[in-house]
């Protein structure tokens, strides 16, 4: 069961996956002039994000629902903390993305730049710099953008959904190697809030 939940957690933190069918070729979407303008609006919005705190609900078809709290402090820092009894915690401290099993006091570190999480926490956010937009959809009240890492499109597909007015990140989706989806919905999001730097410190165990 813990292995299943850890797989869920990986979806929430946007870690790199093996080749995903829809992203394998990394073909750039052909955007209309209006879509290019809309994408620029999204970039401008993401650039203004300094800090954020939100509750999240994570859903997959296979393993069900998990909940927790999401924090971000750009550039570079992020924390995804699951509600008990799930003992998992992810922290990006600007250099490393670290997974913790707080119950077993075990950790795994990967360079944050090797994951799709880097797109969200980097200082300069651009849909033409190191990521490729593979799909863009616009409805009356939302934008939906699919991106892959340009140099490694098989690392996974990240789908971001934004509310139009006012512009706000609502959810994201990660697709794994088998095409399974993990959806993360943000609730009660607060932006531009003061966050304690200790939230992004890597725990040390004796």
Explain the overall architecture.
The chain contains 3 helices and 11 strands; from the N terminus they run H-H-E-E-E-E-E-E-H-E-E-E-E-E. By secondary structure, it is an alpha+beta fold. The two termini are 27 Å apart. The chain has one domain: Lipoprotein localisation LolA/LolB/LppX (outer membrane lipoprotein receptor (LolB), chain A). It has helices at 2-12, 33-48, 117-121, and strands at residues 51-60, 64-73, 77-82, 88-93, 96-101, 106-111, 131-138, 142-149, 157-163, 168-175, 181-191. 16% of the residues lie in helices and 42% in strands. The protein has an 11-stranded antiparallel beta sheet, with helices on one face.
Summarize the structure.
By secondary structure, the protein is an alpha+beta fold. The protein has helices at residues 2-12, 33-48, 117-121, and strands spanning 51-60, 64-73, 77-82, 88-93, 96-101, 106-111, 131-138, 142-149, 157-163, 168-175, 181-191.
């Amino acid at each position: 069961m813990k292995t299943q939940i850890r797989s869920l957690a990986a979806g929430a933190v946007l870690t790199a996956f093996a080749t995903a069918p829809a992203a394998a070729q990394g073909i750039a979407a052909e955007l209309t002039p209006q879509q290019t303008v809309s994408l620029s609006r999204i970039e401008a919005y993401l650039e203004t994000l300094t800090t954020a705190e939100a509750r999240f609900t994570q859903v997959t078809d296979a393993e069900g629902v998990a909940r927790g709290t999401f924090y971000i402090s750009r550039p570079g820092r992020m924390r995804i903390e699951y509600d008990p009894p799930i003992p998992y915690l992810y922290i990006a401290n600007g250099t490393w993305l670290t997974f913790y099993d707080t119950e077993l006091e075990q950790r795994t570190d990967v360079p944050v730049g090797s994951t799709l999480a880097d797109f969200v926490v980097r200082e300069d956010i651009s849909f033409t710099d190191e990521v490729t937009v593979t799909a863009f959809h616009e409805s009356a009240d939302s934008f939906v953008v699919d991106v892959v890492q340009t140099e490694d499109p098989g690392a996974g597909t990240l789908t971001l959904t934004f509310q139009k007015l006012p512009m706000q990140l609502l959810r994201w989706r990660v697709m794994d190697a088998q095409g399974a989806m993990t959806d993360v919905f943000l609730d009660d999001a607060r932006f531009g809030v003061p966050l304690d730097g200790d939230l992004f410190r890597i725990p040390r165990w004796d």
